[in-house]
Amino acid sequence: MLPRALLWAYAVVSVAEVAATLAGSRPAVYATKPLLMLLLVAWVVADARCRSFAWPGPLRLLVVGAGFAWAGDVFLMVDGDGWFVAGIAAFAVMQACYLAAFVRVPGPGLVRAWWIAAIPYVLVWLAINVLVWPGAGSLRVPVVVYSAIAIAMALAALDLVLRVPRRLGWRVARGAGLFVASDALIALTAFGPLSASRAWDAVIMTTYVLAQAMIVTGFTRAMRD
Prior knowledge:
Layout: H1 2-23, H2 26-32, H3 35-51, H4 57-75, H5 81-103, H6 110-113, H7 119-136, H8 140-159, H9 166-190, H10 198-224
């Protein structure tokens, strides 16, 4: 089936992208990275057509967010502070779209029912900002705002667990957590105590491709089921 083939293609391209990042091969990165989110969006479309299910509002928001993630991927491939800021802005919009998609799903919420679950997320947000504050310079406020949006998105994903099939809710929540981890590593290597290296870049990409796959497939199937 086409949806399965697209997921396999995403897996192959993801491995190739991580390998290219680790090897420092820019041509290979330029060839693979822009394909990642395109393949996931193509999978959503193909899955919808094969199973003939309607496109609820939350799923449309997710797809819009995935489009901004694609833009962020492309912008961050280009050197320069301006492109870096543009890429981060695109990902901020992506996370806002994902957040809006998650909160629009009706029903009870895990975080709302058990607010203590939010504490680790808040502590992670505080730790990241404490570590990157000295090196962020003029980007301190944008980093604080961006990281707050990321944590809010992850909390909204966790809150889904009681509103969708449990296994799919946890998949989305874990994917959102991996996305926060990926972004945290970007901040820590750009502004914080970690030294930028190909190895860290490969870890960032690994967590990123896993995060996007878990969020997109988990949420799409939750809306379908």
